[in-house]
Design goal:
Low-confidence stretches: none
Order of helices and strands: EHEHEHEEHEEEHHEEEHHH
Largest sheet: 9 strands, mixed
Length: 278
């Protein structure tokens, strides 16, 4: 273990597999911060509190992933950590390769603000090939603390969705780069997507609940307004690809469409933060 590395896991109604994941991380990090966004704490939250090397933070309700990550970083920075692994509770880290991965992170972090892992990728090859990208998911990322400080962390006003993309965007604006290790992969669950086969090709409808559609479209519209050139393709995809898939293949269409409209409207009026029904 090396206190150059810390780990931050954001919890929300954690299940037994989350408890086991956090237990594994505690074997490899001197400090693991578990930030609990659960509104009502369950038995797994109580078990996680008792794991050695785990610092449990109760946000006393759902504060959003951005605020939770910022709080976790604050604690780990205070502990002297220089690089922080950020993990979603639904992801499974390949802990058997932890030492090799950390060695690679120390090598590449000199050039990259974030060194992430691939996800849901099968490989028999543990080579050190990297892929440079513009945006990457939050889970499985080793973040340079100094880079985190330079961009003032994650934007808590976004609450959830596009938090990772906005963070990556701020890094790029300051000339910093992002990469992931191609042949080291997380097992990562992304919501409850609906599989669609069209002319032999596989696609997915997101199948989020209505409130997630609110945040997704509000935040994508907000970022599009912030930098139309950079976010044009991402926002266009939300409008011309993801909305039709939702309307064709998902349930609760009217409710989801209403939340999408509300999200876009709130973005236009710069109304961010946690959703408030009105």
């Amino acid at each position: 273990m090396d206190n150059r590395f810390g780990c931050c896991v954001v919890l929300f109604n954690p299940d037994e597999s989350t408890y086991h994941n956090v237990s594994e991380y505690s074997c490899y990090f001197e400090y693991v911060v578990a930030v609990d966004n659960s509104i009502e704490k369950n038995k797994n939250s109580e078990l996680i509190k008792k794991i050695p090397n785990v610092i449990y933070l109760d946000m006393e309700g759902n504060s959003g992933i951005a605020k939770a990550l910022n709080k976790g970083f604050e604690v780990l920075i205070d502990k002297g950590c220089k690089y922080v692994l950020t993990m979603d509770q639904d992801s499974k880290f390949p802990v058997a390769h932890m030492e090799k991965i950390q060695d690679q992170v120390l090598h590449y972090i000199k050039e990259y603000a974030i060194v992430g892992l691939n996800f849901n990728y099968d490989s028999n090859n543990n080579s050190n090939e990297i892929v440079e990208i513009d945006y990457w998911l939050t889970s499985g990322n080793f973040v340079d603390v100094e880079a985190f400080k330079k961009v003032n962390g994650f934007n808590s006003n976004l609450f959830i969705d596009y938090v990772d993309i906005e963070f990556n965007y701020k890094l790029h604006k300051l000339g910093m780069k992002i990469c992931y290790l191609k042949n080291y992969s997380l097992k990562h669950k992304i919501g409850n997507p609906i599989k669609i086969i069209i002319f032999g090709k596989c696609y997915y409808a997101m199948n989020h609940n209505p409130i997630r559609y609110y945040y997704r479209y509000r935040n994508s519209r907000y970022l599009f307004a912030k930098d139309r050139k950079v976010f044009f393709k991402l926002y266009l995809k939300e409008i011309v690809v993801n909305i039709p898939k939702m309307l064709l293949y998902e349930d609760r269409k009217k409710e989801k469409l209403r939340m999408i409209k509300r999200g876009i409207s709130d973005a236009k009026h710069n109304k961010l933060g946690e959703y408030v029904d009105s």
